[in-house]
Amino acid sequence: MGALHLTLASASPRRRDLLARLGVTPDAVMPADIDETPLKGERPRDYALRMGREKALAIETDGCVLAGDTVVAVGRRILPKTEEEHEARACLKLMSGRRHVVLSSVVLRGADGKLHERLNENVVRFKNLSAQEIDAYIASGEWRGKAGGYAIQGQAEALIQWMRGSHSGVMGLPLYETRALLKTAGFEIG
């Protein structure tokens, strides 16, 4: 078998950094341009998997494609990838003092076009956030473009009371699941 070629279907520098922890450097990085609007009544798990699949299928290449999506949900409510300050502020207020779920799908499309997927589920609880803490986090700008309006690898980590699950999954690429998929496809990973 010839050398495997891998395209990462993401513009996220976090996903590239996480992939590097496995000793894997993608041959290409091509963000998938898809409609990320949840379907009416779509459950968070189904949405996360659908987004990962659609991103993997959107990239035109003969090699393998690694794609994923991270979804933050409170109950059945899917929180947005925040682009506006008011969205981030609303998310933080909603999650203050309560648990939320972070779902990270990872999908590997093989060179044969077959999809292999995994879903990583995490539970995270923020402390009761004061108005000053929310203001300070908003001022950091870390919330821009982040599911649920926060990035665990930044200042928000100090506001998290506890979590159950995978830190890399909350960051956006669950390493355990990603490693398993890549190894199964034939990538050499220690």
Q: Quick summary of this structure?
A:
The protein has 190 residues and is an alpha+beta fold. The chain has helices at 13-21, 44-58, 85-95, 131-140, 167-171, 175-185; strands at 6-8, 28-29, 64-74, 77-78, 81-82, 99-109, 115-126, 146-147, 160-164.
Structural class determined from secondary elements? alpha+beta
Distance between the termini: 19 Å
Shape: globular
Q: What is the chain-wise order of helices and strands?
A: EHEHEEEHEEHEEHH
If classified by CATH, what would the architecture be? Alpha-Beta Complex
At the third CATH level, what is the topology name? Maf protein
Mean pLDDT: 95
Number of strand segments: 9
SS summary, helix count: 6
CATH class: Alpha Beta
Number of domains: 1
**Fraction of residues in helices?**
25-40%
C-alpha-based Rg, rounded = 17 Å
Strand content is: 25-35%
Largest sheet: 7 strands, mixed
Low-confidence stretches: none
Plain-language structure description:
Helix content is 32%, strand content 26%. Strands 1, 2, 3, 4, 6, 7 and 9 form a seven-stranded mixed sheet that branches. Strands 5-8 form a two-stranded antiparallel sheet. Helix 1 links the parallel strand 1 and strand 2. The chain has a single domain, classed as Alpha-Beta Complex (Maf protein), CATH 3.90.950.10. It is an alpha+beta fold and 190 residues long.
List keywords for this structure.
190 residues; alpha+beta; Maf protein; 32% helix; 26% strand; globular
Secondary structure elements and pairings:
Elements: E1 6-8, H1 13-21, E2 28-29, H2 44-58, E3 64-74, E4 77-78, E5 81-82, H3 85-95, E6 99-109, E7 115-126, H4 131-140, E8 146-147, E9 160-164, H5 167-171, H6 175-185
Parallel strand pairs: 1-2, 1-3
Antiparallel strand pairs: 3-4, 3-6, 5-8, 6-7, 7-9
